[in-house]
Specification:
mainly alpha; Arp2/3 complex 21 kDa subunit ARPC3; about 0% strand; elongated
Length: about 180
C-alpha cells in the first residue's frame, strides 16, 4: 500500500542522504567519490510508488544535490528522472521483489546517472574532470548503489510495517458454511 507516508519518507530520505553526503567525507579520500543514494532511492521509487513520486524525487533530490555540488542548478534532475521513468514504465516486466534484480537495477542506475550527468555537463559546455582516473569512482558509485538498493527495499517494507495497520488473518467464521436451524 502506497500512501503519503511513502512519499514523505522518500523525500525525507533523499534530503538526509544529500545532507550526509555533503557533510561527511565518507569514502571520498580513499576512492575519490562519496556513495550517492539518490539513484538507489530512484529505483525504489520507480518500482514501488506512483509516477508523481518519481517526478518529485527527481526534482527534489536533483536540486538538493546540485545546491551542494559544483553542478549547475538542475543538471542532476534530468538523469534521475530518465532512470526513474524508464524503470517506472517497465516495472511490470521487472522482478522487483527479488534481491538480485534489485541489486542489478541499482548497479545499472548507479552507473547510468553519473554517466548521463557527465554527458549533460559536456553538452552544456562545462569541463568536468574526466579521464582514466574517473573509472574507479564511477565503479564505486555503481557498486554502492547496487548494494544499497536491496537494503532500501527492506527498509521501506519494515517502515511500512511500523506505520501501517497489519492485516488480520482469516476469521473462525467461514461465510460459506451452512447454519442449520431447528430442533436437531
Amino acid at each position: 500500500m502506497v500512501g503519503p507516508f511513502q512519499i514523505v519518507a522518500t523525500l525525507a530520505l533523499a534530503w538526509l542522504a544529500v545532507f550526509l553526503e555533503a557533510a561527511l567525507p565518507g569514502t571520498r579520500p580513499w576512492l575519490g567519490a562519496q556513495p550517492d543514494v539518490l539513484p538507489a532511492l530512484m529505483v525504489h521509487a520507480a518500482l514501488r510508488t506512483p509516477l508523481p513520486n518519481v517526478f518529485l524525487l527527481a526534482l527534489w533530490g536533483g536540486l538538493a544535490l546540485d545546491t551542494v555540488s559544483a553542478n549547475p542548478l538542475g543538471v542532476s534532475c534530468m538523469p534521475l528522472l530518465t532512470v526513474g521513468l524508464l524503470l517506472h514504465l517497465r516495472r511490470d516486466l521487472l522482478l522487483r521483489e527479488q534481491p538480485f534484480a534489485q541489486f542489478m537495477l541499482g548497479l545499472l542506475a548507479g552507473a547510468a546517472v553519473p554517466a548521463m550527468t557527465a554527458v549533460l555537463l559536456l553538452t552544456l559546455g562545462r569541463q568536468p574532470l574526466l579521464g582514466w582516473g574517473t573509472l574507479v569512482p564511477w565503479a564505486w558509485l555503481a557498486l554502492s548503489n547496487g548494494l544499497l538498493t536491496p537494503l532500501l527495499f527492506r527498509l521501506f517494507v519494515r517502515a511500512e510495517g511500523w506505520f501501517t495497520y497489519r492485516r488480520r488473518g482469516p476469521l473462525a467464521f467461514r461465510p460459506d458454511r451452512e447454519i442449520r436451524r431447528g430442533r436437531y
